[in-house]
Amino acid sequence: GQNIDQPTEMTATEGAIVQINCTYQTSGFNGLFWYQQHAGEAPTFLSYNVLDGLEEKGRFSSFLSRSKGYSYLLLKELQMKDSASYLCAVRVEGGKLIFGQGTELSVKP
Amino acid sequence: DSGVTQTPKHLITATGQRVTLRCSPRSGDLSVYWYQQSLDQGLQFLIQYYNGEERAKGNILERFSAQQFPDLHSELNLSSLELGDSALYFCASSVELGAASGYTFGSGTRLTVV
Prior knowledge:
The complex is a heterodimer of chains A (109) and B (114). By secondary structure, chain A is an all-beta fold. Chain A has strands spanning 3-5, 9-13, 18-25, 32-37, 44-49, 53-57, 60-65, 70-75, 84-91, 97-99, 103-108.
């Protein structure tokens, strides 16, 4: 079976740092993705990890540990526009992405 | 504009009816994926096509079917609609099966069954 877990909701303050965790148990692994989704809109690609370690892209970083089935997305210098749902997804055999339920992040002033 | 085009954007229909959702992938992308997102639910994988052939199926209901045409556009057909089918339906495309950029999503079709 495929199981991807992430917290349902998180709240953080503008200017702060927040870490969104994701654990997964999947049949096959060919990369882990993070997407951002604003309500009613399409998910947009944030990051991709296929090897262990940290990938940094501006204010966003993503970490992967394949042996632990664990990833996190780190958002720095939070802005109000970062309020959105953050989706963790694992690419399994055949190329399809299996998504977690998403973490709803609220950024407060 | 992501380059993935979905039509229509909104659809309201009655229970028992049949609808067709259309998706044109980004230019050059061979793979098309369909996802369903219900209220407070994550993205549920429905079906995947690659260069005209079905590659993988998720928990797609028997009332649902899809196909990818020679020009690579895809259609998702939903029949005998029920209230519970109300959801956002997303199409996504990728250039190949193992692309590091993942998928590019269209803006979705919001289906409301009344």
